[in-house]
């Protein structure tokens, strides 16, 4: 029977090519936008290079001091001293990466200026984030403790600073008015990952600001990695317990707050949507769903309108089938299946178009080093969107059609 | 005529309901798109109010050994002198973190005798700031050495703040209340659009960097001679790094402006592309549905032709029907759109919303008219004999 439906659907599609074109255009375009948007979101939130351990990691990106009297509060990244003293000593995390937010500085080479993003890190940074070393290796704990001026640079920096040299390990790079010896070169990270992105990674001990200063607030973030995914809640609790014991530096404030979050939550909590009480993910999901609803409303309405016209055109066929005893539900089923076939066709076209668009974005390097792909999850979501689309735009016209009286349907011929 | 068309539509309200909803949603989409465009265009029309060519910004972290206010002021003097010793440097002035085209913002509430609670940007600037950016004073004067001994803190405000805080009257010599302090206005300057080409003019209040504020100001605006190149920049960078001792960054203001403008333009381009495709989609859909509806009414049209209606009046009727239909949709849409200026959503001037509403109304009418034109023409070409024969 499905085979029959399929044949009928194709015949109908061929009959009024203009309507078919409008329907397919609407479906495929809507889907293209959805797929491209999901590809961006997926790229930003899933475990991509080099942050492959996100599922068993917790991020500490900010600390907060709150004053209860006049509702004052202060937010800032943590200090190295704080993270080293309270976070590195926790028992559950197997590794704790501590690094500064990248800061821009300049390098001058061949009378050209190069903006270099500089990041200070500890040694476990290289274990938590799995960078791919094109040559050389990370600096060691020994080198960090000795305060050696060694650096790991990104592939882009190697190309911009050294040109076409095959190997640069052991060579010197001058940035921020300091000479660093290159220890390794890593594959570049897109700027959309602020915790692992930088052009030049150097030991925290060579930082120009004093990392030993005994304050809570500073310019550093930490990523705690647990042994397994199951240990993550335990790690969160352990951190919360230690935070509860800490008093703010400043006498104006009464409360010290810091929360270890998963990667996505750590960003949303620092946005206007989040607060120290809730991460704001639910609010974001809500806002996104409302936007999505509005965005899909117009193409759906359009499709419903067109479907009604097309179905009413077939009133004679419906009349004959009804006269020979087909039930309303059979007819509704048939039209929904037909509509799903149409949406699937649109879906395939949409996937092809989005594939081309994403390839174009990747090839033109619109966002440096960002590689957008359509993976299984994205495909699954778009298929789901397709089915919803097909059902919604098919149900109402089919229902209206099925209520046609046999007599009117046949007479209107 | 119109009431007759309305009756025709009312008779088929069920069929027309979906069409109206579609037009209504398209109106809302166009309203959003036009609001964005009108806002950006309005902002674009205002002059920038200062010059950014050949202005560089050096940002650094204040060294930790500078603790007292006096040593910070002294340190700034040293830097200023060092910069001025370069022949390529025309002028150098200190600024807070929210120098033009920076991402940082700093604002607070201020009030005057006339007005309470006006939000304004707070800028920290030194005596050379105005000259570096070549901004214009409207009345009064910019800061000078003489202000070192002034009893109350002195400020310069921009024209917009004068309008909002002092109802456009001369503000010179008057006082502004700010968190218990009384700030004396010594000058009014022309508005500076310091966040980018497509961003609105905002209230601005400039405070003089005194000894107490010196510790917190660590950005230097440097006006260089045209043609100063990377070689000189490298030299400058080295010299500053050696004097300051912490991390230094030098940026060019024209590059910063490009980046700021990109930030305002990219969402607009995305909106335009998405909105444009949605509208093409709707237009094709409307066209198809109208065409189909008209074809279904062949017998009715044939009858009208047979009793003497001209082809023109038939097509007029059909186009008119579509336009009445869109009027219904627009009325519902207007009800929602008018809430934006009434409730002051998003803090935009009412004129932006009104222009956007007018544009989107016109747009929907034109769209529907164009979509109905061809089907209407087709209907006019129906021969009564053929149409009635089909029945």
Automatic annotation (TrEMBL), chain A:
Domain ABC3 transporter permease C-terminal: 290-405
An example Gene Ontology CC term for this record: plasma membrane
Organism: Paraflavisolibacter caeni
Keywords for the protein's UniProt record, in alphabetical order: Cell membrane, Membrane, Transmembrane, Transmembrane helix
Domain of life: Bacteria
Protein name: ABC transporter permease
Keyword field contains Transmembrane helix: yes
TM helices/strands, residue ranges: 21-41, 284-304, 340-358, 378-399
Compartments it resides in: Cell membrane
Main localisation: membrane
Residue span(s) of domain MacB-like periplasmic core: 20-238
Residue runs in coiled coils: none
Keyword Transmembrane set for record: yes
Membrane topology reported for the UniProt record: Multi-pass membrane protein
Entry's Gene Ontology molecular function annotations: transmembrane transporter activity
TrEMBL record, chain B:
Cell compartments where the protein resides: Cell membrane
Stretches of the chain forming a coiled coil according to its record: none
Topological category with respect to the lipid bilayer: Multi-pass membrane protein
GO-annotated molecular function: transmembrane transporter activity
CC terms in the record's Gene Ontology section: plasma membrane
Transmembrane domains' residue ranges: 17-38, 265-294, 323-340, 352-374
Record carries keyword Transmembrane: yes
Keywords: Cell membrane, Membrane, Transmembrane, Transmembrane helix
Chain ranges of the MacB-like periplasmic core domain: 27-230
Listed name of the protein: ABC transporter permease
Organism: Paraflavisolibacter caeni
């Amino acid at each position: 029977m499905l085979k029959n439906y399929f044949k009928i659907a194709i015949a109908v599609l061929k009959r009024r090519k203009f309507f078919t074109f409008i329907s397919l255009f609407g479906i495929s375009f809507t889907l293209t936008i959805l797929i491209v948007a999901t590809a961006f979101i997926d790229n930003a939130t899933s475990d991509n290079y080099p942050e492959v351990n996100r599922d068993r990691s917790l991020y500490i990106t900010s600390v907060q001091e709150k004053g209860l009297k006049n509702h004052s509060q202060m937010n800032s990244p943590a200090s190295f001293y704080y993270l080293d003293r309270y976070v590195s000593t926790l028992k559950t995390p197997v590794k704790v990466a501590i690094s500064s937010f990248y800061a821009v500085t300049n390098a001058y080479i061949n009378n050209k200026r190069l903006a270099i993003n500089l990041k200070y890190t500890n040694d476990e940074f290289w274990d938590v984030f799995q960078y791919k070393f094109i040559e050389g290796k990370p600096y060691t704990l020994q080198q960090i403790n000795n305060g050696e001026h060694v650096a790991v640079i990104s592939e882009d920096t190697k190309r911009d600073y050294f040109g076409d040299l095959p190997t640069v390990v052991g060579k010197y790079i001058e940035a921020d008015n300091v000479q660093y010896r290159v220890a390794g070169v890593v594959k570049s990270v897109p700027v959309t990952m602020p915790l692992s992105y930088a052009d030049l990674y150097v030991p925290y001990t060579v930082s120009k600001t004093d990392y030993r200063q005994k304050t809570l607030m500073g310019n550093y973030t930490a990523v705690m990695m647990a042994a397994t995914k199951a240990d993550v809640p335990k790690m969160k609790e352990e951190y919360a317990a230690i935070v509860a014991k800490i008093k703010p530096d400043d006498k104006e404030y009464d409360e010290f707050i810091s929360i270890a979050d998963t990667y996505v939550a750590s960003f949303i909590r620092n946005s206007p949507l989040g607060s120290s009480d809730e991460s704001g993910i639910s609010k974001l999901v809500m806002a996104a769903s409302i936007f999505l609803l509005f965005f899909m409303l117009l193409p759906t309405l359009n499709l419903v309108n067109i479907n009604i016209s097309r179905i009413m055109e077939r009133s004679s066929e419906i009349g004959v089938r009804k006269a020979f005893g087909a039930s309303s539900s059979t007819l509704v089923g048939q039209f929904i299946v037909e509509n799903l076939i149409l949406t699937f066709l649109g879906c395939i076209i949409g996937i092809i178009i989005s594939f081309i668009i994403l390839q174009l974005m990747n090839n033109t390097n619109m966002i440096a080093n960002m590689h957008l792909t359509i993976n299984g999850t994205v495909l699954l979501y778009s298929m789901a969107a397709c089915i919803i689309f097909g059902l919604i735009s098919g149900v109402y016209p089919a229902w209206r059609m099925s209520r046609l009286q046999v007599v009117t349907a046949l007479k209107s011929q | 005529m119109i009431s007759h068309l309305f009756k025709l539509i009312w008779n088929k309200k069920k069929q027309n309901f979906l069409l109206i909803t579609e037009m209504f949603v398209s109106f809302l989409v166009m309203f959003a798109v036009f609001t964005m465009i009108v806002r950006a265009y309005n902002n674009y029309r205002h002059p920038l109010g200062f010059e950014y060519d050949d202005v560089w910004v050096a940002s650094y972290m204040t060294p930790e050994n500078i603790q007292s206010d006096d040593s910070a002021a002294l340190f700034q003097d040293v830097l200023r002198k060092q910069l001025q010793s370069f022949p390529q440097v025309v002028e150098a002035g200190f600024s807070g973190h929210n120098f033009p085209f920076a991402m940082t913002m700093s604002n607070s509430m201020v009030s005057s005798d006339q007005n309470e609670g006006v939000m304004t940007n707070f800028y920290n600037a030194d005596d050379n700031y105005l000259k570096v950016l070549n901004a214009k004073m409207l009345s009064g004067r910019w800061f000078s050495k003489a202000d070192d001994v002034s009893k109350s803190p002195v400020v310069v405000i921009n024209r917009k703040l004068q309008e909002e805080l002092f109802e456009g009257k001369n503000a010179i010599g008057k006082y502004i209340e700010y968190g218990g302090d009384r700030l004396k206005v010594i000058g009014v300057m022309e508005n500076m659009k310091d966040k980018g080409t497509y961003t609105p003019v905002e209230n601005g209040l400039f405070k003089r960097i005194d000894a107490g504020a010196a510790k917190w100001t660590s950005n230097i605006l440097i006006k260089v001679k045209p043609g100063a190149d990377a070689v000189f920049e490298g030299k400058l960078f080295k010299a500053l790094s050696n004097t300051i001792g912490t991390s230094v960054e030098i940026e060019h203001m024209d590059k910063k402006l490009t980046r700021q403008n990109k930030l305002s333009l990219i969402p607009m381009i995305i909106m335009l592309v998405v909105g444009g495709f949605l509208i093409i989609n709707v237009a094709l859909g409307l066209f198809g549905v109208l065409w189909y509806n008209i074809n279904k009414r062949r017998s009715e049209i044939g009858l009208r032709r047979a009793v003497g209606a001209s082809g023109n009046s038939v097509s007029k009727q059909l186009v008119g029907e579509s336009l009445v239909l869109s009027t219904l949709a627009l009325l519902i849409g207007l009800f929602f759109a008018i809430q934006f200026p009434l409730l002051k959503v998003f803090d935009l001037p009412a004129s932006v919303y009104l222009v956007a509403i007018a544009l989107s109304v016109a747009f929907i009418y034109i769209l529907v008219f164009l979509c109905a034109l061809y089907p209407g023409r087709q209907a006019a070409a129906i021969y009564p004999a053929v149409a009635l024969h089909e029945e």
